[in-house]
Specification:
This protein has strands at about 5, 10, 20-25, 30-40, 45-50, 55-60, 65-70, 75-80, 90-100, 105-110, 115-120. It is built from no helices and 11 strands. Strands 2, 4, 5, 6, 9, 10 and 11 form a 7-stranded mixed β-sheet that branches. A 4-stranded antiparallel β-sheet has the order 1-3-8-7, with no helix packed on it. Strand 5 (about 45-50) and strand 6 (about 55-60) form a beta hairpin.
Length: about 120
């Protein structure tokens, strides 16, 4: 069974930094696209950043220049380095990954979500 487990959320002051991690586990053969979404209270879930298996990245305009997405395929882990955090970055952050496992064809998986709160 494939699982995505997130960590690294928390409370940070404006201007601060956090690093989110998303570790995939299970009988994984290959991982294609990975990324992060976020959902603030009363708002729709929005794409924050994504990274392909080849390393190409895309970012939401609101986080360009402040957030950096990366992946370590040897560890099946996705990261999101968040710098210069603003109160409007407050949200639950969800990772996703498209994974091929030994038991299940290519499927889209989600993490459980991790809360990021930016406040003084």
């Amino acid at each position: 069974q494939v699982q995505l487990v997130e960590s690294g959320g928390g409370l940070v002051q404006p201007g601060g930094s956090l690093r989110l991690s998303c570790a995939a586990s299970g009988s994984i053969l290959s991982i294609n696209d990975m990324g992060w979404y976020r959902q603030a209270p009363g708002k729709q879930r929005e794409l924050v950043a994504r990274i392909t298996s080849g390393g190409s990245t895309n970012y939401a305009d609101s986080v360009k220049g402040r957030f950096t997405i990366s992946r370590d395929d040897a560890k099946n882990t996705l990261y999101l380095q968040m710098n210069s955090l603003k109160p409007e970055d407050t949200a639950v952050y969800y990772c996703y990954a498209d994974i091929l496992s030994s038991r299940i064809p290519w499927s889209h998986y989600w993490g459980q979500g991790t809360q990021v709160t930016v406040s003084s």
